[in-house]
Design a protein that fits this description.
6 strands; mainly alpha; elongated; two-stranded antiparallel ribbon; four-stranded parallel beta sheet
Length: 645
């Protein structure tokens, strides 16, 4: 499909075939030099600084004349980053990290200007200290309570989502006509999944299928329970990440960084749908990071805490790696933990790390065997290194993928300048190296996602998880570095100022980005699934009343592949025993545009001609005469069967 887009007098022709169907009009146009949003950001920062100077000094003074050197340099950094936003003609979403850093840096000086004099007030220090102690005492309850409110405010309506035509039919297949699955039946059902195709299936997710079957046992045929559980998974992940980030960012800053991370669009599918393996990884990732952080913190931990952390490393990695193969990269930090544990002769941490490594090898080996056998991944893309490198190279020709990498690389290099001053202690130099290591790691993670997804990444879909988390992760790393580099003498006033600037910056971005698109997406999904189930129940009712009639599913597109199997499995789950047939209209192997489509069409042609998976061969429809119903999936087709929809 080729489309022509007109925008502000300019036009572009976009070939969707060359973009994998993921073309976005904004990326095809050169943004005007003045960039209203970025210009507004720059002017707002300058105006705020001037206002604070007048308020505190009755005059406007240069930053270096009023502020300590660290705050003045931070302010100048903010202006420099704002100028980058102005002149870099790339889509603003690709520069989210620069935007967060620019806003935070611009706000540090005004925040310090207010925090420093207020910090001298004894009664305010006392009140703040008392509030801090009260907050610390009840922090866990407050954090999970706020996480619940945030998750419900965005995804609360998804509880009313019904069965969907995509993915959810697998649940009905496992539940069967009696709409139930016992715990003892899980072992019998597991070999029917990818677990029974070790080294054969190019997708291997043992934890995903075990957890999905376990949910079938617990939630059964109640979609509302399934969707409510996904909200609880999000609440758990938010709360645990919030707790992990709080010591460095402060209670409010950590919460707002989590809230900012939720503004990205991939959460709509990860939490709003039942099928994605990423949903389980949302719970597994904070468990793994908590365990890893505890064991690598260098602090003396109680035996029970160390044991819990070791279990968390193993359990978190099993959930993540076994739900989404990309997480096999967790083998790197697990190997580092194993190395540290061996050197320290730590018999508690070592089993968790080694178990994580072995599980990663188990999953990775299965996928490697499968792709080596077929030469393609699950989407029929070539896995040849030359092909992957070519796709990644082509992707890096676009600003969408190049800008984030350049940003991370530039920050990594720029931090080297901080190590030059001789006044820096050994500890501060180590802090700079720590930040550089993580920024370089984020670069590699970004590149790895381009390799995994054949250059078509990010996509604003569930495939962006966890890769796009590099943005809030980089914010955390840089903020923590900044706090560690603060002069000890001014730390009392500087830390509140830094945290305040981060809070205001994140709050501004959360408000600007908002959750309305996600909330609307969930609302639309609720309406669509309820309409689908209403239609499904109506069809099932008619077929049960006419048990001697056949149902012919009419397909006019290869995109009907999953709905074909979905209807069969749902109808059998609703107790329909009528004969089912598949009839294909207007497409064949000759019309396939790419390898994956050819594979799908071949399966549908085989199903139509020879039957299988609950369908009868189409040749057996003739003797039934007019005793048949037609269900059109795509398009309208004239047949001798009575339309049922």
């Amino acid at each position: 499909v080729v489309i022509k887009v007109n925008w502000d007098g300019d036009s572009r022709t976009i070939d969707l075939g060359q973009t994998g169907g993921n073309a976005v009009a904004e990326h095809s146009f050169v943004s005007p030099w003045w960039r209203p949003g970025a210009l507004g950001l720059l002017l707002w920062g300058a105006s705020l600084y001037i206002a604070v100077m007048i308020l505190l000094n009755s005059e406007i003074r240069w930053p270096v004349a009023y502020l300590p050197s660290w705050a003045a340099w931070t302010l100048l950094t903010g202006f420099a980053l704002s100028i980058i936003l102005l002149v870099w003609n790339v889509p603003l979403p690709t520069l989210q990290l620069v935007l967060v850093l620019a806003l935070t840096s611009l706000l540090v000086a005004p925040a310090y200007g207010v925090a420093e004099p207020l910090g001298r007030l004894a009664f305010l220090r006392t009140a703040t200290s008392q509030a801090g102690h009260a907050l610390q005492k009840n922090s866990t309850v407050l954090i999970f309570g706020c996480s619940l409110v945030l998750a419900l405010s965005i995804f609360g309506r998804s509880i009313w989502t019904n069965w969907a035509i995509f993915d959810d039919h697998e649940i009905m297949l496992f539940l069967g006509p009696d709409r139930a699955l016992s715990f003892t039946q899980i072992l019998g059902a597991l070999p029917q999944t990818e677990i029974g195709q070790y080294g054969i299936s190019t997708r291997f997710r043992p934890s995903y299928w075990f957890l999905r079957l376990l949910e079938c046992v617990v939630w059964g045929a109640h979609p509302y329970y399934w969707h409510a559980f996904r909200i609880l998974i999000l609440v758990f992940a938010l709360g645990l990440f919030w707790i992990l980030l709080s010591p460095s960012l402060g209670w409010l800053g950590a919460g707002l960084l989590c809230a900012y991370a939720l503004t990205f669009p991939y959460w709509r599918e990860v939490i709003g749908y039942l099928g994605p393996g990423e949903t389980y990884a949302v719970a597994g990732l904070p468990i793994y990071i908590w365990g890893l952080a505890k064991l690598l913190s260098g602090r003396q931990l109680a035996g029970k805490t160390r044991f819990a952390a070791s279990v968390a490393v193993f359990l978190g990695s099993v959930i993540c790696i076994g739900s989404k193969e990309n997480f096999v990269l967790l083998v790197v930090p697990s190997a580092y933990l194993a190395y540290k544990a061996l050197r320290a002769k730590d018999s508690i941490a070592l089993p968790g790390a080694v178990g994580s490594i072995f599980f990663a090898a188990y999953v990775g080996n299965s996928v490697l065997l499968a792709v080596n056998r077929g030469g393609v991944d699950v989407y029929s893309h070539s896995v040849a290194p030359s092909a992957r490198i070519a796709h990644v190279f082509n992707a890096l020709q676009t600003a969408q993928d190049l800008a984030p990498l350049l940003t991370l690389s530039a920050l990594t290099i720029a931090l080297s300048a901080l190590s030059l001053p001789h006044r820096f202690s050994k500890e501060k130099r180590k802090s700079v190296l720590w930040a550089q290591f993580w920024l370089a790691t984020f670069c590699l993670i970004y590149l790895s996602q381009l390799v995994f997804y054949n250059g078509l990444w990010p996509t604003d879909t569930r495939y962006d998880f966890p890769g796009i988390l590099y943005i809030p992760a980089a914010v955390f790393v840089l903020f923590r570095l900044g706090v560690r580099l603060l002069p000890a003498v001014q730390h009392a006033a500087a830390l509140p100022a830094a945290r305040t600037s981060l809070v205001i910056a994140l709050l501004s971005l959360v408000i600007a980005r908002g959750y309305n698109p996600t909330i609307q997406f969930i609302a639309n999904n609720v309406d669509e699934t309820n309409r689908f189930v209403s239609r499904l129940e109506s069809i099932a009712s008619v077929l049960r009343e006419h048990a001697d009639y056949a149902l012919v599913i009419e397909s006019g597109s290869s995109a009907d592949y999953e709905p074909v199997f979905s209807y069969e499995e749902y109808l059998r789950g609703y107790g329909v025993k009528n004969s089912l047939f598949l009839r294909i209209h207007g497409y064949s192997l000759e019309t396939a545009q790419y390898n994956q489509e050819a594979k799908l069409i071949a399966d549908l042609v085989q199903l139509s001609a020879h039957g299988g998976s609950g369908f009868d061969p189409l040749s057996e429809l003739g003797p039934l005469g007019e005793k048949c119903f037609s269900l059109n999936l795509s398009g309208r087709f004239g047949t001798d069967c009575q339309p049922i929809n």
